[in-house]
Design brief:
Length: 118
C-alpha cells in the first residue's frame, strides 16, 4: 500500500511540474530596451529611429508596443509584449532588425526580457 501511495504522489508531483512548465512556456514575455547616447546629436539620431523600431516590433508580432525618449538622459526606450520568447527571438534575429539596430549610436544599450506575471 505504501508503494502505491508513493507512486501516486510522485505521479501527481510530476503532473504538477509538467503543467507548470507548460504554462511557463506559453507565458507572455515583456522586452524592455534602453539605449543611452553619448551626445545630443547621437540622441537625435536615435530618436529618429523610434518609428522604425515601433514598426518592426508591430510587424514582428508584438501584442503591444510602446516607445519613448528622455532628452535629459539622452535615452530612448522600447517596451513590447510578446506571446513567447521564441517569437521575440525570431524578430531580433532578423536582418531587418539587425540593420536598424546597427544604426543606433550608443553609449550603452540594455535589453531585458521578463516573463509576464498572470
Amino acid at each position: 500500500m505504501f508503494n502505491v501511495m508513493k507512486s501516486a504522489l510522485l505521479l501527481g508531483f510530476a503532473a504538477v511540474l509538467g503543467t507548470a512548465s507548460l504554462s511557463a512556456a506559453r507565458a507572455d514575455v515583456l522586452r524592455v530596451a534602453v539605449v543611452e547616447a553619448a551626445s545630443d546629436e547621437d540622441f537625435k539620431s536615435n530618436v529618429a529611429l523610434l518609428p522604425a523600431f515601433a514598426d518592426l516590433l508591430k510587424k514582428g508580432g508584438a501584442k503591444s508596443v510602446t516607445v519613448g525618449s528622455d532628452g535629459e538622459h539622452k535615452s530612448i526606450a522600447t517596451a513590447s509584449v510578446w506571446g513567447s520568447a521564441a517569437d521575440l527571438a525570431k524578430l531580433t534575429g532578423s536582418d531587418d532588425w539587425k540593420a536598424t539596430a546597427g544604426k543606433l549610436k550608443r553609449k550603452s544599450y540594455t535589453t531585458e526580457v521578463f516573463e509576464v506575471a498572470p
